[in-house]
């Protein structure tokens, strides 16, 4: 059983290796064809007059720059779309922040009667006990302000 498992693994590896080798051979053949085509084009270019060689070089450069410009325009369009999307998101988040800030300014108004009750309770405890007192953590700044005043 172990020997059969090892044989199966070896056959799988051999098959994968053969497939990789075939893919590499195909890629090498394609590259060799491309190289031969480039060599022929180069030899043909050398046979042309210097003026024609310059003109061909300029045409190739114009083609390359045109393609590069098209790619850059496409990239610019993508970036502009992304900018618009981000601006919309920013507006949404700014609105949420404003709503949140507005709700936070409303909370202290609602808590004020509670805070006044706490002030009274703190004052009574100070008069009664002259020591430790109990308070809510969120009321600490208010407590400190009242102790100072």
Proportion of β residues? under 5%
- Summarize the main sheet: none
Rg: 40 Å
Shape: flat
Amino-to-carboxy terminus distance? 89 Å
Low-confidence stretches: 120-126
Q: How many strands in all?
A: 0
Task: Report the total helices.
Answer: 3
Helix-strand pattern: HHH
Q: Approximately how much helix is present in the residues?
A: over 70%
Average the pLDDT over all residues and give the rounded result: 83
- Strand-pairing-aware structural class: mainly alpha
Question: Would you give an account of this structure?
Answer:
This protein is mainly alpha-helical. Among the domains are: about 1-45; about 55-105. Helix content is about 90%, strand content about 0%. It is built from three helices and no strands. The longest helix is centred in the middle third of the chain and has 80 residues, at about 50-130. The model is unreliable at about 120-125 (pLDDT under 50). It comes from Sinosuthora webbiana. This is MYO5B protein. Keywords: Coiled coil.
What descriptive keywords fit this protein?
mainly alpha; 149 residues; flat
Outline:
91% of the residues lie in helices and 0% in strands. The chain is mostly helical and 149 residues long. Residues 3-103 form a coiled coil.
Topology (elements, then pairings):
Layout: H1 2-47, H2 50-129, H3 140-148
């Amino acid at each position: 059983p172990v020997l059969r498992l090892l044989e199966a693994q070896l056959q799988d590896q051999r098959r994968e290796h053969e497939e990789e080798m075939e893919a590499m051979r195909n890629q090498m053949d394609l590259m060799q064809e491309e190289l031969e085509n480039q060599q022929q084009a180069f030899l043909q270019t050398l046979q042309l007059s210097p003026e024609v060689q310059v003109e061909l070089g300029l045409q190739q450069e114009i083609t390359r720059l045109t393609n590069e410009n098209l790619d850059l325009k496409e990239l610019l369009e993508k970036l502009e779309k992304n900018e618009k999307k981000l601006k919309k998101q920013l507006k949404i988040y700014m609105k949420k922040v404003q709503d949140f800030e507005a709700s936070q300014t409303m909370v202290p108004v609602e808590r004020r009667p509670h805070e006044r009750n706490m002030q009274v309770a703190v004052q009574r405890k100070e008069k009664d006990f002259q020591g430790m007192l109990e308070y809510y953590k969120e009321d600490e700044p208010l407590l400190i302000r009242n102790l100072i005043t």
